[in-house]
């Protein structure tokens, strides 16, 4: 199909054209520029969290690569000879010694360590907040369910990356963290002891674990994260970004700025801003001062130790679980089998697996749970304002309360010492809160969402309260309401409010049990719904509502008073 | 506040009635009119914005210079203060270098680049016709391969494919030795002296006054081959109480010596060192998860997530008055495991 005339048909006239011609005629690429160069991206500040996560990951790769040039993941014994005087001559692992060297003897090494640690904290935080945004706005709905699953996997991989990295310096703090992991692994029935021995290359702590975690941390986990990020962004391109509802926005269009130049400039500039902020934090705030902790030794431990924030909730769950109930019952069961007695340690296994299991299972399943209840299988490209999906918002808040209670429990000792209250009481209260809190959180959040919806209705119908009280000629007092314009009103009324439905019989006239359950769930979701204002309601309110200023003429006559 | 869920449609504050979502909805008024920015209308504002962007880029240059200054001209001198100073300067230099560029570009985009919102239509992710075709193609591929018609091939392939990855799991077997009995024994043995952690000097019974506590390791541990692994099981807390306040159970009356008792320091929860001794209440507290053990009840759990008492090390004194163990622990120390029994 090609001929010399076809190649020469396009004659570039500008320098850009010549470059384009060179690239495109060899490897293609003009198609991509055509596709992406002016692609529209909706703009909203809440869409920024995913970007923060992406950029902090890039910063993690940059700073992490620097650190690998100096870090030695060996657990061989050595005596520290670096420039930090208090530890000179102390016996420690090579890994810890090289971490100290990075901090004290490599110029900029401490800065890079702090950049790496701070951006790791930010990476997981941005991931989590991004997922909250996606959840509360319903962005996980069809066609984006699978991308929600990819995002959840990214969060889990982020936790894994964080924990494996946290352990590498082989200091006292991270060593005790590993010890806790070892204790949890050993509580797994049947295979736990074997997993522990294979993981640590024998008895804890052994001399293998740091090297193994290192390979996971710098090779396997980042590779998986990169792959998932690739899939994640690919799907964003396929689906196009969601947008908030509003005037001019529909389920079938995208309103926003073109990639080139505005969006690219904002997003690209934002990378430097994220980097700059992380650099500023790393300049001014010490994180993980490993030289204060000393090398790992199984005997000492410092009081008030805290894991990195994202592991806190699991540690908190471990703290909240009572080991015993009363003087005669404990959660460690010795089960007699024909071959002997085996031990099941539910006081460890339960809190380590169940809360995280509940949270992640519900997260992964939620898109399908919701579409099953609502029978809504349509594509959604318009987001919900959180208030317009009160039950979902309530469920999300319940999850946040559940998570945060466990997170707070990881600091139960610090809460007790800072507020001068009994440690035991703090734990008792948090035990109650972890069960009751999500329920209360659900109810309050749902009620607040419904109340906000009602407020929206009032504003859409009667306009904004101006605070101006006017006395009419016949003595009546009214407050002047200023009607909202069409654009503002559309923002307040353009949402869907599904209704609870009765169970539907199948072809045989039989109402299946799952259909009954679904109808009950639907009632739970939508019974208290608030519907959007309709034009006829608006009309009716303007025509006949007492105490309102009925028409423009009246309004003007009052305004002139 | 009006009740919006049970009202009638005749009052203006009610919920919608069925069907209301259909025809009776507001029409989309379209994008609000574009509001020009100052820089769009005022050439001076435009010029000003241009200078601001350039200034921000210049700040970035200064930041980079600050980094180089800190790197080459703030020498480290073995003090934390100097290190902190260098770290601060390096960090602030980087921060200004990055923020200057970032804020500059965003300011440029927001003030000088066009801010007209554009609209683009969405398209279906795929064509449904393609889907049918894809289904057909896959069907053809399956048919041509004959995998459905030849169950013998299919089943043997499934069998082989299930089996083939197993070596990839088995090959990890040498990651570590089998546990064997190693978790059930510690470094302690009959007659072994109790020594201070970490110095390894032996402890006389007379050194242990009422109310005091010692962190203890077995004699010779510091010279042991697998020092850390042995230490992770063998560390012990030694305390002296009023003998009256101890309540030893049957068979354990002679495990202490004149009010001196020794307990494993490894928490029975997940293995943290139970490092805190509350002298007044005679409680041991684990700082990791706050399990609390009562010395007066043979270290029974009285609070927190641990389920099992701390194991006690039976001790006595030798002829020279030094404390010795009379045996190893009588049960496995540390966190529970399946084979513990």
TrEMBL record, chain A:
Record protein name field: Cytochrome bc1 complex cytochrome b subunit
Membrane topology label: Multi-pass membrane protein
Record localization: Cell membrane
Coiled-coil regions, chain positions: none
Sample GO molecular function, one term: oxidoreductase activity
Organism encoding this protein: Arthrobacter crusticola
Lineage: Bacteria, Bacillati, Actinomycetota, Actinomycetes, Micrococcales
BP-aspect Gene Ontology terms: respiratory electron transport chain
Basic and acidic residues bias locations: 545-561
Enzyme class of the recorded protein, top EC level: translocase
Stretch list, region Disordered: 538-561
UniProtKB/TrEMBL annotation, chain B:
PROSITE patterns: RIESKE (PS51296)
Main location: membrane
InterPro entries in the record: QcrA_N, Rieske_2Fe-2S, Rieske_2Fe-2S_sf, Rieske_Fe-S_prot
Membrane topology (UniProt): Multi-pass membrane protein
GO molecular function: 2 iron, 2 sulfur cluster binding; metal ion binding; monooxygenase activity; oxidoreductase activity, acting on paired donors, with incorporation or reduction of molecular oxygen
Location of the Rieske domain: 255-324
Chain segments carrying region Disordered: 1-45
Record PANTHER family: CYTOCHROME B-C1 COMPLEX SUBUNIT RIESKE, MITOCHONDRIAL
Role according to the record: Iron-sulfur subunit of the cytochrome bc1 complex, an essential component of the respiratory electron transport chain required for ATP synthesis. The bc1 complex catalyzes the oxidation of menaquinol and the reduction of cytochrome c in the respiratory chain. The bc1 complex operates through a Q-cycle mechanism that couples electron transfer to generation of the proton gradient that drives ATP synthesis.
Protein name from the UniProt record: Cytochrome bc1 complex Rieske iron-sulfur subunit
Lineage: Bacteria, Bacillati, Actinomycetota, Actinomycetes, Micrococcales
């Amino acid at each position: 199909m090609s001929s010399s005339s076809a190649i020469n048909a396009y004659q570039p006239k500008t320098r850009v054209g010549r470059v384009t011609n060179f690239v495109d005629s060899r490897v293609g690429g003009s198609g991509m520029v055509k596709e992406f160069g002016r692609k529209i991206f909706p703009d909203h500040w809440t869409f920024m969290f995913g970007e923060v996560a992406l950029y902090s990951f890039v910063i993690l790769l940059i700073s992490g690569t620097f650190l690998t040039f100096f870090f030695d993941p060996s657990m061989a014994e050595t005596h520290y000879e670096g420039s930090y005087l208090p530890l000179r001559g102390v016996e420690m692992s090579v890994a810890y010694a090289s971490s100290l060297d990075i901090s004290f003897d490599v110029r900029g090494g401490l800065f890079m360590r702090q950049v790496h640690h701070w951006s790791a904290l930010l990476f997981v935080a941005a991931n989590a907040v991004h997922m909250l945004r996606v959840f509360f706005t319903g962005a996980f709905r069809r066609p984006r369910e699978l991308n929600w699953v990819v995002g959840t996997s990214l969060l889990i991989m982020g936790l894994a990356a964080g924990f494996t990295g946290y352990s590498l310096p082989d200091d006292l703090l991270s060593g005790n963290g590993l010890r806790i992991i070892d204790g949890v692994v050993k509580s797994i029935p049947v295979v736990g002891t074997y997993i522990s021995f294979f993981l640590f290359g024998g008895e804890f702590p052994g001399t293998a674990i740091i090297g193994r975690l290192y390979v996971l941390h710098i090779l396997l986990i980042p590779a998986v994260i990169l792959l998932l990020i690739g899939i994640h962004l690919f799907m964003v391109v396929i689906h196009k970004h969601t947008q908030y509802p509003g005037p001019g926005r529909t389920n079938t269009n995208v309103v926003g700025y073109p990639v080139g130049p505005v969006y690219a400039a904002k997003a690209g500039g934002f990378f430097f801003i994220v980097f700059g902020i992380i650099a500023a934090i790393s300049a001014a705030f010490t994180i993980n001062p490993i030289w204060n902790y000393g090398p790992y030794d199984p005997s000492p431990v410092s009081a008030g130790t805290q894991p990195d924030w994202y592991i806190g909730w699991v540690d908190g769950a471990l703290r909240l679980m009572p080991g015993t109930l009363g003087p005669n019952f404990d959660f460690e069961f010795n089960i007699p089998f024909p071959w002997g007695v085996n031990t099941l340690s539910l006081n460890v296994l339960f809190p380590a697996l169940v809360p995280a299991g509940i949270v992640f299972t519900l997260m992964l399943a939620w898109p399908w749970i919701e579409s099953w209840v609502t029978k809504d299988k349509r594509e959604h490209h318009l987001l919900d304002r959180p208030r317009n999906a009160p039950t979902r918002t309530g469920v999300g808040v319940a999850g946040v309360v559940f998570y945060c209670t466990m997170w707070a429990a990881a600091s139960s000792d610090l809460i007790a010492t800072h507020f001068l209250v009994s440690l035991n009481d703090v734990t008792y209260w948090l035990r109650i809160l972890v069960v009751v809190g999500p329920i209360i959180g659900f109810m309050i959040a749902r009620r607040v969402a419904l109340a906000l919806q009602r407020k929206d209705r009032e504003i859409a119908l009667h306009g904004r309260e101006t605070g101006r009280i006017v006395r009419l000629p016949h003595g009546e007092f009214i407050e002047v309401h200023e009607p909202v314009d069409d654009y503002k009103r559309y923002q307040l009324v353009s949402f869907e409010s599904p209704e609870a439905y009765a169970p539907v019989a199948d072809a045989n006239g039989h109402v299946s049990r799952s259909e009954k359950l679904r109808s009950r769930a639907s009632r739970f979701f939508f019974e208290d719904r608030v519907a959007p204002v309709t034009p006829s309601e608006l009309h009716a309110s303007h025509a006949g509502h007492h105490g309102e200023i009925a028409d423009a003429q009246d309004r003007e006559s009052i305004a002139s008073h | 506040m009006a009740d919006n869920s049970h009202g009638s449609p005749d009052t203006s504050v009610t919920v919608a009635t069925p069907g209301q979502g259909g025809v009776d909805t507001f029409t989309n008024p379209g994008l609000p009119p574009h509001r020009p920015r100052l820089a769009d209308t005022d050439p001076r504002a435009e010029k000003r914005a241009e200078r601001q962007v350039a200034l921000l880029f210049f700040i970035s240059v200064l930041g980079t210079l600050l980094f180089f200054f800190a790197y080459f001209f703030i020498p480290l001198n073995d003090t934390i203060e100097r290190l902190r100073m260098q770290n601060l300067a390096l960090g602030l230099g980087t921060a200004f270098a990055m923020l200057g560029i970032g804020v500059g570009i965003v300011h440029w985009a927001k003030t000088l680049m066009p801010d007209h919102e554009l609209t683009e239509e969405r398209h279906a992710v795929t064509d449904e016709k393609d889907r049918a075709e894809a289904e057909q193609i896959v069907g053809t591929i399956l048919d041509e391969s004959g995998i459905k018609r030849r169950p013998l091939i299919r089943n043997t392939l499934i069998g082989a494919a299930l089996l083939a990855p197993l070596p990839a799991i088995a090959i990890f077997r040498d990651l570590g030795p089998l546990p064997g009995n190693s978790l059930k024994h510690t470094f302690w043995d009959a007659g072994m002296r109790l020594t201070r952690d970490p110095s390894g000097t032996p402890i006389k019974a007379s050194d242990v006054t009422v109310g005091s506590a010692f962190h203890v390791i077995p004699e010779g541990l510091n010279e042991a081959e697998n020092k850390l692994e042995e230490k992770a099981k063998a560390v012990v807390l030694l305390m002296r109480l009023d003998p009256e306040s101890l309540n030893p159970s049957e068979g354990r009356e002679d495990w202490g010596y004149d009010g001196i008792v020794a307990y494993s320091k490894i928490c029975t929860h997940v293995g943290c060192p139970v490092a805190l001794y509350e002298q007044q209440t005679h409680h041991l507290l684990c700082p990791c998860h706050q399990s609390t053990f009562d010395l007066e009840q043979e270290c029974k759990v009285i609070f927190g997530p641990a389920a099992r008492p701390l194991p006690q090390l039976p001790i006595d004194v030798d002829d020279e008055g030094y404390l010795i163990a009379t045996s190893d622990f009588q049960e496995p120390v540390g966190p529970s495991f399946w084979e513990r029994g």
